[in-house]
Every structure is written in structure tokens, then in C-alpha cells.
Amino acid sequence: MLLNSYQNELIEAGCDEAGRGCLAGPVFAAAVILPPDFIPGMLTDSKKLSHKQRDVLRLIIEKEAIAWAVAEVDHLEIDKINILNASFLAMHRAIEKLSLKPQYLSIDGNRFKAYPEIPHACIVKGDGKYLNIAAASILAKTHRDEYMTKIAEEYPIYQWKKNKGYPTIDHRNAALKHGLSPYHRKTFTISQPQLALFSEIKG
User: Fold this and answer.
1) pLDDT tens for residues 154-188?
2) 16 has binding-site annotation
3) 79 annotated to a ligand binding site
4) How far is CA 15 from CA 11, 12, 73, 196, in A?
5) What is the CATH number of the domain that holds 51?
6) Which of 54, 75, 144, 166 stands the most exposed, by the fewest C-beta atoms within 10 Å?
7) 108 is known to lie in a ligand binding site
């Protein structure tokens, strides 16, 4: 069973991102402060849930959280500052947007650029250990999926409604055949050797 938060003495926001490994679109991040008596239900790491389950949980989290916020860093910024820094920046933007300033941050992963004046802990696979990080993973994922589904209407050849910008075989093939869209991250290389390697991994 997941714990509510990493520590209980200070007001804590869980933070996570979505879209870091994608070839196209922004990276999204969310920050969530849950009430101490939050009832988790089926809440867990977003990757372990179905699309429908995530959408249901998103509504519950946005209704019951003490505070929540979602922010993004677009593909142009990603190309300028790299995806790792973009992930940190997206989290900072989400934290900044919170209606209640947290006193502590629990971050999914093993690296983070410290947010001014707020201590933090980096927790590997934190979205499977703490409810506030799991909630952040749900919001980041669902808000990003919604965005990718919307821009997929402009460029249906890449099948973003299905792959959400991740490097699937169909997505890579479409990019190699038709070239890159304005939403693609130009610093992310799409090449035949990578495609062959990805095919081996998937196979």
C-alpha cells in the first residue's frame, strides 16, 4: 500500500513529469498536495493503470487535492535546454502555480534541480511508493495525453492519438517517410539504426 507522503511534518507536494522520452510534443509536469485523509482507491503509478482509470482518477485528484497544478515545457524549449533541464523546469513551473506554497517536495526520480527555499527528496520509482507522487504522475500523464490527442488532428500521419509522441515503430516510420512536424524535438535523432534497435527491443 502506498503511503500518503514522504514525510508528515511539513506541507508536502508530490511532483512528477510525463513525456520525457517522446520524440514530439512538450514535457508536462504536475505538483499535488493531498489531504492527510485522502482515500487512495485504485491510485498508483500511472503506467500501471488504463487510460480509463487514469481519467477517472484525474477527476478525483483535481476535486479532492488541497492544491494541484500542471505545467509544460514545449519542444522548442526542450531543444534549447535539453530534456533533463526541461523536465526540471516543468516541475518548477507546476510548483510555482500551486495555490498553496508547499514546505517540502517529493520528486519522482533520482535527480532534481532544487526549487528555491523548499527542501526536497528524490525518490526512485516514487510514483509507486507515495500517493502524492502517484497523483502527480496521473495529472501530468492525462494532461499531456489530452494535449497530444488535440495536436494529432493537425498531423494524423504520426498517429499521436495512439502513441502520444512516444517512439513507436509507426511513429518513427512516419517521421522517416514524411519528415518531422513542427512539434517534433529536433535534437532527438530519428534514424534507421535506432529504428532497427527499437524493433529488436520490442520484438
Assistant:
1) 999 999 999 999 999 999 999 999 999 999 999 98
2) yes
3) no
4) 13, 10, 15, 34
5) 3.30.420.10
6) 166
7) yes
